[in-house]
Amino acid sequence: MRLFVAVGVRLDIAGQLSEWQQQLARIPAQVRWVPPEQYHLTVKFIGEIGEARLAEIRNRLDQAAAETPAFALSISGLSRLEVRGQVRIIMAEVVSADQRLNRLHRRIDQEFAGLGIPLDTRPLRPHLTLGRVRSNHSLNKLLRRLEHYAAGRIAPLGPWPVGEVSLMQSMPSAQGVVYRGRHHAALQPLD
Predict the structure, then answer these.
(1) Residue 69, preceding bond cis, omega within 30 degrees?
(2) N or C terminus of the chain with fewer C-beta within 10 Å?
(3) Apex CA 31: angle with CA 28 and CA 35, to 5°?
């Protein structure tokens, strides 16, 4: 099974992002837009893992989460993510003002390294994927429109409290990828 660790998005935040996404989708660029019910922030990609290792992964995730205080996230604006110089992702930029998201990422990375899961070599760039670019057709027009939603041009969304992380399974289907929650790990409550 293909697994990753993620943080969910509060419904009202997802609703606002969906409205912006619908505005962008009016431009005839070739983008596969993510359904709002699938918005999430990936904290750690795990990859293919056998069912027999699931209990150990859940235990390690519980440990990392229990050592990380709850925190808040907000959306600063919309942007793009480039891969090898080409725009591949239309995204919402996520901000963790107190850096607890980064702390959580490091703790999960450390816990999972003991299971043979590779450490992340790149720093975490917190974002929610709104769309995946399929070609450069009409992309410049979309990117110009995207600038209207950039950080500093819009009011930030949130913050919303994060009290847990989820172990998610990614499953391909005829309609696209389907996500299934496999475990939820509680963060350390705030005093």
Answers:
(1) no
(2) C
(3) 115
pTM score = 0.91
Domain ranges of the chain: 2-186
Phi, psi of 164 (to 5 degrees): -155, 160
Query: In the numeric block, which tokens belong to residue 163?
Result: 């009290």
**Which pairs from 169-175 meet CB under 8 Å and 24+ separation?**
169/1, 169/2, 169/3, 170/2, 170/3, 170/4, 171/1, 171/2
Q: What is the residue type of 101? A: L
What kind and span of H or E run contains 147?
none
Structure-token match 């992002």, residue found? 17
How far apart are the C-alpha atoms of 79 and 76, rounded to whole Å?
10
Residue found by looking up tokens 């606002």 in the block: 16
Domain 2-186 has CATH 3.90.1140.10: yes
CB 153 within 8 A of CB 31: no
Q: How far is CA 154 from CA 23, 68, 141, 178, in A?
A: 15, 30, 19, 31
